[in-house]
Known about the structure:
Belongs to the thymidylate kinase family. Pfam families: Thymidylate_kin (PF02223). Its EC number is 2.7.4.14. It catalyses: dCMP + ATP = dCDP + ADP; CMP + ATP = CDP + ADP. The chain has helices at residues 9-19, 24-34, 58-69, 79-82, 85-89, 93-114, 126-137, 172-182, 188-195, 197-205, 221-231, 246-260; strands spanning 47-51, 72-75, 120-123, 164-169, 238-241. Helix 10 (197-205) crosses helix 11 (221-231). It has a five-stranded parallel sheet, sandwiched between helices. It has a single domain, classed as Rossmann fold. It starts with 8 loop residues before the first helix and ends with a helix. It contains twelve helices and five strands.
Amino acid sequence: MVFKGPFRPNAFCDLSLQCAERIPEAEAVLDLLEKCPEHQKKGSFPVIVFEGLDATGKTTVTQAVKDALNGILLQSPPACISQWRTVFDDEPTPIKRAFYAAGNYILASEIAKASTQAPVIIDRYWHSTAAYAIATETSEKVQDLPPAQDEVYQWPEDLLKPDLVLLLTVNPEERARRLQHRGLEKTKEEAELEANSLFRQRLTTDLISYPCILKSNFSCFGFSVEESYKRMVNPVCQEVDASPSKEEVLKTVLQLIKKHCAF
């Protein structure tokens, strides 16, 4: 099976022309996308991305790292289009995924500018879009997932690349406890995950970074995440256990940044 996910901006351009009258926000996103220079280049400061499922501590850690490095914190989708996220989340999968793909390229413009000024910390980026699209758009058979060497796991050549990608993980019990403590409600995607164990397995295997609540059959999570970050390459995702205290996690993260990012 050859899988081609809607990871690049041309997918959004094509779809926006088809749905502009019905979704006026599509034209606004397209306008922003067309203003983005091609082949963005980052500045001299490091760009560090944090990935992970909901309730793994991304918000806490990214803010702490931003403060520790006196950096700039960005997120995907970027603030300039995040207000339309709910609009596109209710659309068919191709339109929804194209929106997130376009968001990566719009975000790249912000990263290019910010990285000339200070270290850039990012809450989710291309890996999230790729993993979710792979999990949702392949067939129902696990063996039909693209093999580990497939090009869909390669970072797009025309998208600004980060210096380091850190995948925050916690054990299933701790994550369930955090979700319950925060009182999060299920999204439509979470309900689908809970109802479809096969889909859930594929989603975690491919490094899904969107919110999900997995209350049963969650034992495969650790193995799935381990396999998933090995599939994403150039750059790979380096796993960080986010179960310890905030102080310990921050110490580990800063050590990794110091090791891999020279500035």
